[in-house]
Amino acid sequence: MSGLKSLIKAIKFNALDYLLKPIDIDERKNSVQKVKNKIFAQKENQLLRNLVTNLQLEDAEKKIALPQENEVVFVPIKEIIRCQAESNYTRFYLLSDRSLLISRTLKEFDQALSEYNFVRVHQSHLVNTKQIASYVKQDGGYLKMLDGTSVPIARSRKDEISHILYNF
């Protein structure tokens, strides 16, 4: 009878699955996969809600959802100075003199931010063109950002970046 009570309690608390002893390995794997799918769906739903909200805002008010270990931080896009790849992570440098390390690749953010005047200037650097102070042609070429940092420009991208900067 206590097994039935446990099952009823699990249903009331929206359990995704219920395993009976002895535990079958395949059933356990399926249960774990259900939990992973649920977590993924929740993250995707949060990102979709953010997208819908952003579509209703003016460009100056738009935000990006940056998922961290225990929270999703919503950062106004205009406050991002630059993004830098760190292996499979991306570090966001913000106007508030803080940075956030996000467990997603720079490529994902390059695609998401390209329509907001962000340019990939190097394999490991994405910059907000509105935060560029100057373009230095010496030493292979680099950008001086408004926060005082320097960002290298890849040789292969130099002509494209020059064209973008002179025409914006």
CATH topology of the largest domain: OB fold (Dihydrolipoamide Acetyltransferase, E2P)
Broad shape: elongated
Tally of alpha and pi helices:
4
* CATH H-level superfamily of the largest domain: LytTr DNA-binding domain
Strand order of the largest sheet: 5-4-3-7-6
Radius of gyration over all CA atoms, rounded: 23 Å
Tell me the strand percentage band: 25-35%
Structural domain count = 2
Mean pLDDT: 81
Write the layout of secondary structure elements.
Layout: H1 2-12, H2 25-55, E1 63-67, E2 72-76, E3 80-86, E4 89-94, E5 99-102, H3 106-113, E6 118-122, E7 125-128, E8 132-136, E9 142-145, E10 150-152, H4 158-166
Antiparallel strand pairs: 1-2, 3-4, 3-7, 4-5, 6-7, 8-9, 9-10
Would you mind describing this structure in some detail?
There is one protein chain. With 168 residues, the chain is α+β, with helices and mostly antiparallel strands. The protein has 2 domains: 1-56; 59-168, OB fold (Dihydrolipoamide Acetyltransferase, E2P) (Beta Barrel). Helix content is 35%, strand content 29%. The protein contains 4 helices and 10 strands; from the N terminus they run H-H-E-E-E-E-E-H-E-E-E-E-E-H. The protein has helices spanning 2-12, 25-55, 106-113, 158-166; strands at residues 63-67, 72-76, 80-86, 89-94, 99-102, 118-122, 125-128, 132-136, 142-145, 150-152. The strands form 3 sheets. Strands 5-4-3-7-6 form a 5-stranded antiparallel beta sheet, with helices on one face. A 3-stranded antiparallel beta sheet has the order 8-9-10, with no helix packed on it. A hairpin with a 2-residue loop joins strand 6 (118-122) and strand 7. The termini are far apart. The mean pLDDT is 81.
